[in-house]
Amino acid sequence: MSGGANLSVTDLRRAARHPVDFPAIVEHFVHGDMHLQVCNLSAHGFMVDNGGQLHRGDRIIIRLPIVGRIEAYVIWTRDNRTGFQFERIIRLDDFVAIIDQLQPNPRLRRSR
Fold first, then answer.
1. Is residue 87 assigned to a domain?
2. Contact by Cβ (8 Å): 74, 43
């Protein structure tokens, strides 16, 4: 049996990302609660700019507005930046509501 994440979609980095500045306390299955700074978000995943202690395949649970707790897996790391993929895609209407709440400046939101 192989370890790590078993994800159905392997490369969604081309998905539209929205800039956010969202401090999150996430649950890591080994390290416990961790403070991460989410700097961009898509319906498929997110990136943090302070995830240097995480490794590819690590699993976390993050709490987001609207959708609540959702599991995510580390897909890539580079320096202190870390990219995550959600265990499931966030529905479009929920994602739009999340962006409206996390990015109140309409000039920084992507057009819909």
1. yes
2. no
Enclosing domain of residue 63: 18-103
If you ran DSSP here, which 8-state letter would residue 8 be given? S
Question: Nearest 5°: phi and psi at 94?
Answer: -65, -40
Q: Amino acid letter at 37?
A: Q
DSSP letter, residue 92: H
57 in the Ramachandran plot: left (φ > 0), alpha (ψ -120 to 50) or beta?
left
Q: What is the tally of structural domains in the chain?
A: 1
Residue 41 CA to residue 95 CA, distance in Å, equals: 9
Residues 6+ apart with CB under 8 A from 100: 109
pLDDT given at position 33? 95
Residues of the chain under the 70 pLDDT cut: 1-15, 104-112
Strand partners, 25: 35
Strand partners, 27: 33, 61
